[in-house]
Inverse folding.
């Protein structure tokens, strides 16, 4: 939580005493209702949930209506291009720059095309799973099997959070067994339901999933067609250490930490271990009024300093993750550069 407190402190500084609603209302450059578009069409997914918690907190704090609109990434980016006044803002996650790195249609360089706003939360539950009856008990087993000539089919949604973990596995095979990385094969699918179905049908050896979406299937007996087992959580162990001790379902925090680095090793060329935190953040129109950016930084800084939002996020199995806009941009740029190296390594 050190980062969160540091971020809030930078925003607040001497403003800690100015936390009353009237002071914010007096400075508020926003007028009318605020449309919060998200890069997902699902109202049941983690993007909608993360955005809704923050939108509700801002609505209460500012006595305004922040409404989340699940329009999908293409429509959201287009809406943002018309959002110069600040009445349309966007919340999305790392796919917004990973889609660009992977050359997906509809994705531009977010750092050149938009204004980066604050980070708000991490979903520490991004995961990879195998059927419970799988001969692969660990991710190392998967890497070794590919290195020894087995074709390993991995169900992912291309161009984003699913694929960066897949790329890291493929890169780990390349490092340990040069020339064998093509034994890791992508099955490109869509939603989580589609990925699950690939496993149910025996088409996939490994799938990308999440603690939130897939933990229920890990409780099933091994002879059930839908039974799964976690082999890797991509989050940093420091992020998981901030998760509730009870975890989710029958997977507690101690068990999660055994599924993440450094217990699970996905090596990079420099000898370090790959890890990936799925992080949610604001995006604005490139020409948005700087007063709006500063005001929302200040407002969110006060909301996180109050502490109640962190409890709401943890109940939904998010790790609180506030950084104001300038820090968030630097942090996310560094993150993009790091994952670009992983992607580039597979094309050389």
């Amino acid at each position: 939580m050190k980062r969160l407190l540091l971020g809030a402190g930078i925003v607040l500084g001497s403003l800690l005493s100015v936390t009353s609603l009237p002071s914010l209302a007096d400075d508020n450059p926003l007028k009318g209702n605020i449309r919060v578009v998200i890069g997902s069409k699902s109202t049941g997914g983690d993007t909608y949930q993360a955005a809704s918690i923050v939108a509700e907190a801002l609505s209460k704090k500012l006595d305004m209506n922040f409404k989340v609109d699940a329009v999908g990434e293409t429509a959201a980016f287009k809406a943002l291009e018309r959002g110069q006044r600040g009445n349309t803002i966007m919340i999305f996650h790392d796919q917004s720059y990973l889609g660009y790195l992977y050359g997906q249609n509809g994705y531009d360089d977010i750092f050149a095309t938009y204004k980066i706003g604050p980070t708000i939360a991490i979903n520490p539950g991004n995961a990879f799973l195998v059927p419970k009856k799988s001969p692969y008990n660990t991710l190392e087993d998967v890497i070794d099997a590919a290195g020894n000539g087995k074709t390993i089919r991995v169900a992912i949604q291309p161009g984003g959070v699913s694929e960066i973990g897949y790329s890291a596995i493929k890169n780990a095979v390349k490092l340990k067994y040069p020339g064998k990385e093509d034994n890791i094969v992508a099955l490109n699918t869509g939603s989580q339901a589609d990925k699950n179905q690939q496993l149910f049908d025996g088409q996939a050896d490994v799938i990308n999933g999440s603690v939130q979406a897939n933990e229920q299937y890990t409780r099933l007996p091994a002879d059930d067609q839908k039974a799964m087992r976690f082999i890797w959580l991509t989050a940093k162990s420091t992020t998981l250490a901030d998760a509730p001790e009870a975890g989710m379902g029958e997977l507690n925090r101690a068990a999660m930490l055994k599924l993440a680095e450094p217990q699970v090793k996905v090596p990079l060329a420099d000898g370090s271990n790959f890890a990936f935190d799925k992080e949610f953040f604001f995006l604005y129109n490139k020409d948005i009024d700087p007063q709006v950016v500063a005001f929302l930084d200040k407002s969110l800084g006060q909301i996180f300093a109050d502490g109640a939002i962190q409890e709401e996020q943890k109940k939904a199995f998010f790790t609180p993750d506030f950084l104001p806009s300038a820090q968030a941009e630097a942090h996310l740029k560094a993150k993009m550069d790091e994952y670009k190296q992983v992607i580039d390594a597979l094309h050389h």
User: Anything to note?
Assistant: The chain has a mean pLDDT of 91.
